[in-house]
Specification:
alpha+beta; four-stranded antiparallel beta sheet; two-stranded antiparallel sheet; 23% helix
Amino acid sequence: MKKITAIIKPFKLDDVKDALLDLDISGMTVAEVRGHGRQKGHTELYRGAEYNVDFIPKTELSIVVSANRVDAAVEAICTAANTGKIGDGKIFVSTIERVIRIRTGEENEDALS
């Protein structure tokens, strides 16, 4: 099993969610996060004063899928989240050793569906 964590632009969340649902991947966790990479930040004006915004609002999406579905999920996220502009985000794939559904006690692949 693999955990896919994607950091994307907030307005692309619905597109990514729909792309994953098309693959029958419905379990996901979403969090509002802030950060920067090459995008660095920008300057804004507030009540006549200029200030730097170092951390840009992003959305973090986490899903766990069986190993044979990783490539399809990553491709769906890449396609749906792509704007072609700096700050589109990153995808991280890591290994998950064990999953347990608390309510039923099901484990691993059985707990994912």
